[in-house]
Design a protein that fits this description.
alpha+beta; about 90 residues; Alpha-Beta Plaits; globular; two-stranded antiparallel ribbon
Length: about 90
Amino acid sequence: MRIEDKLGKTRFKVREESHIRLAPGVPERRRAEKLCLACPAGLYSLDGDGRLLFSHLGCLECGTCRLLGWNRELEAWDYPVCDFGVQYRNS
C-alpha cells in the first residue's frame, strides 16, 4: 500500500487553537526552509517577506519540526488536548 493511500485513511479532529506556536519575528531563512522541507505534511511555508507560516490542520504530530525548530522558530509544541489531533486508521 502506498503512503498516500495510508494517509488517506487518517482522520483529524482539530481545535481552532493550534498545539504548535511559532516564535515571534522573522526566522533565519535557511533554518525556516529546513522546516518547510522536513514537514511530511507540508504545513510550513514562507511568505514573501520571509516570515514562517504554519497551519496545524493536518499535522501528523511526528515531532520533526519540534526537533528542528525548538527554541528558535517554535515557541511551543504540545500534543493536542485529549481526543483531538491525528487519528491513524489501518482499515
